[in-house]
Amino acid sequence: MHEIALHNISYAYGNQRILENISFTAAAGEFVCLLGPSGCGKSTLLRLLAGLSQPSAGALTLDGRPISGPGLDRGVVFQDYSLFPWMTAGQNVVLALEQAFPGRAKAEQRETAQEYLEMVGLGTVFNKLPGALSGGMRQRAAIARAFAINSPVLLMDEPFGALDAITRARLQDLLIQLWQQNAAERKTVFFVTHDVEEAILLASRVVVMGLNPGSVRGVFTVDIPRPRQRQELFGNSAFVALRDRLISELHADVLDELDDGRTIRTEGEGI
Fold first, then answer.
1. Does residue 227 have a cis peptide bond before it, meaning omega lies within 30 degrees of 0?
2. Domain assignments of the chain as residue spans, ordered by start
3. Any idea which architecture 1-73+154-271 has in CATH?
4. CA dihedral sign, ordered 127, 131, 137, 138
5. pLDDT tens digits, residue range 233-271?
6. Residues 177, 180, 186, CA angle at the centre, nearest 5°?
7. How big, in percent rounded to 5, are the helix, strand and coil portions of the chain?
8. What is the pTM of this model?
9. Percentage of residues in the chain with pLDDT exceeding 70?
10. Residues near 169 by Cβ (< 8 Å), separated by ≥ 6?
11. Residue 223: in which H helix or E strand, if any?
């Protein structure tokens, strides 16, 4: 069991309210996408779930226990790859394994790291530094590291946002493949994105967030059977209807901000 619950979560930075009264429960093994415009607090919410920041009000729980700080029960993948540049790709994965499983022999740790690198198509880069890898390869190494420690919860902050379209599509498919392959131990995933189509492709449910302060505008179930084939989605009536609904919800939020005369935060502020 690895259920995450958010109970009336608010967060402020100084006098600026970033998040306000967010309540949501993600069931064990659920894939949740946090969707919203830049500046709505998606990344802030993910940091709270990771235990890297604490809410100003409300409570966060994992299986009923308060989230009070970082832990190996939550793997995190950031959009900037977050690999140590002075360590090889393999050493980055091994380091995480040593923290998660300190009693394992070093040879076993290296073997496991190699296994997960191969799983993401990086079987030949164990001894290469991150600087020698492309952006897509570095992100795959970060994903391998997160999956290798086998945390029951995976938190991903726009991990594919800076990648080209082809690499992004491949990593989306890889992520879903890894998530689906073991139904008995399926991870609970929170995935931050501002891409409507990416959210529908990946998610079980989509949480649409609004602006100033960040709040939940709506929660939408993705009733499209898996496996979802990208080529077939665009002709799927359920996909088209949900895409239009989500886009309408996002546009309505921005229009509400403009009608109210409030300033919309630019990208990088309060996220």
1. yes
2. 1-73+154-271, 84-150
3. 3-Layer(aba) Sandwich (3.40)
4. positive
5. 888 899 999 999 999 988 876 666 666 655 545 444 444
6. 135
7. 40, 25, 40
8. 0.87
9. 92
10. 230
11. none
